[in-house]
Amino acid sequence: MSRARRRRLLRSLTAAAVTAGVLLTTPAPTATPAPTASPNPSPNPAPAPTSDPAAPPAETPPAETSPRAEAWVDERLASMTLEEKVGQLFVTYAYGATADTDDPEDVARNQEWLGVANGREAVERYHLGGIIYFTWSDNLADPVQVAELSNGLQRAALDQPSEVPLLVTTDQEHGVITRLGEPATRFPGGMALGASGDPDDAREAARIAGAELRAVGITMNHAPVADVNVNAANPVIGVRSFGGDPAIAAELTAAQVDGYQSDGGVVASAKHFPGHGDTAVDSHVGLPEITHTLEEWRALDAPPFAAAVEAGTGAVMSGHLRFPELDPSGAPATLSEPIMTGLLREELGYDGVVITDSLGMAGVRETYPDAEVPVRALAAGVDLLLMPPDLELAHRAVMDAVASGELTEDRVDASVRRVLTLKWEQGVVDDPFADVDRVDDIVGNADHRAAALDITGRTTTLVRNEGATLPLAADGGDALVTGAGGAVRGLADRLAAKGLPATAHPAGTDPDADAIAEAVAAADGHDTVLVVTANTAANAGQAALVEALAATGRPVVTVSTDVPYDIAHHPAADAHLALYSSVPVALDAAAAVLLGERGPLGTLPVDIPAADDPDRVLHPLGHGLRYP
């Protein structure tokens, strides 16, 4: 986002944020020398607010806990070896559908990755604090299998001398980042909820998602995404964000934290601090740099994280971002004491668990060797180290840092105490196991699916409707559905089921001239053409396809299933519907809106800039048309 546009946005949002009570007004902190114990010294350290400008940042005390929790945490800490304590700081993955898998391929991959055969042995060897599930690591075949895997891993943890259960984690943001798939209930994700703008919907979506995760033994969800997406070119956040208004994002972030933790029963992990919404680089492949000033950070990026802290989020995930105005040393935020301690712990007052984003990502590996990264992260104020690229190396590096005095055992104890307290407070200690017999009654049940459709029905956004092209009449002819992805057939099938003859003709994500010519030929004889789009800015063939179809003289309706910015690239479209997702429930809602069974109730949660001028707003945040 350009500086000029950011200044205008900041001025408009400052007034709104003050009205909503989410603008941070803490005085600018005074620069302080880097503490000598830190492995990340800088000649010009970033400001870190303290009561004594000459003193290094103090260790933030843990939140108040019940006497029973405190007694359990004290007892566990006193009984654990240093090696066991360090193990509690790591969350990683292991291949396999069962805790003691003997599948040859998974065993081979585990041996290469962890030096052990399976997840059970990984827990025993490294005394892990947590595990994370992915489809590609063969963890997520079906709900009952996941529940049995979780139980097997928890038994392995509780069989250890420390008897500390695991945090079983995944990334179930919904929308584009969905790990537990069908038959689990699926929602269209953050930006769709931003289009609804209803905190009750956000809370209920999180409650349902949390209940289904807990049913399969997952106790921590790396969600919600608290980043404020103010950059239409953001390659990694986009529809994962609630949108571009920090006040709305703050309200929905707090609602989802409450839904996950109070009702859903899983730990929420608000991400990616200090805010990933104005990046043009994907931190999986590089180190993004954000040029916001401290004032801009407080007004634009910080409010959702402040709201998450106020709502009692169990965890905050760091982002691998360079943020020079917050830390002039250039260290990624994950490794920055001024950001992790000075801003998150001291300015925002957060005393819970801080977890890194994956330490295998390029954004945190560009600056320092892999052996230094976990030590620097702990020195910066982080507690949990997620997916280091070499777990044995990382574990040994932390042990060596304590032996050398680079880290103190007290510093390790502070993080372990936070992790153990979190496990107690979120019920993981009292109830670590999934009830396998109840999984099928909870995951994807009829009530959850009905609620998902109801919520999603309030998110579909009508951005353009020239000549009252929409709604379509079921008896008003037939339609060709073309464009990108599996949503083409899904949408055509749903329209046909509702009485509108519809033919699917997938053209591909980035159609070439031949694919475009075939789609134009296929449109012959159809009354209306619907074009499914998905990130047109990165796939120029989609714009050429819409232009060619519009030239036939038939009404053309574009339906974006990813970022809503696509409309800026389709000036010839007669109507445009933004879904923010291609999950089945989003297509169900879209078909109902296209045929007028439901009205379009969503509004844009972001500004849509013109394709040829990012400083010119084509459709403003809050725009959304209605049927008469």
Automatic annotation (TrEMBL):
Region (Disordered): 19-69
Biological processes, Gene Ontology terms: carbohydrate metabolic process; peptidoglycan turnover
Reaction equation(s) it catalyzes: Hydrolysis of terminal non-reducing N-acetyl-D-hexosamine residues in N-acetyl-beta-D-hexosaminides
Record-listed E.C. numbers: 3.2.1.52
Annotated signal sequence range: 1-30
Keyword DNA repair: no
Enzyme class: hydrolase
Domain Glycoside hydrolase family 3 C-terminal: 461-614
Skewed-composition ranges (Low complexity): 19-29
Record keywords: Glycosidase, Hydrolase, Signal
Coiled-coil regions listed: none
Pfam family, one: Glyco_hydro_3
Biased composition (Pro residues): 30-60
Top-level lineage group: Bacteria
SUPFAM superfamilies documented for this protein: (Trans)glycosidases, Beta-D-glucan exohydrolase, C-terminal domain
GO MF assignments: beta-N-acetylhexosaminidase activity
Glycoside hydrolase family 3 N-terminal domain sequence ranges: 81-422
Protein family (similarity comment): Belongs to the glycosyl hydrolase 3 family.
Name of the molecule in the record: beta-N-acetylhexosaminidase
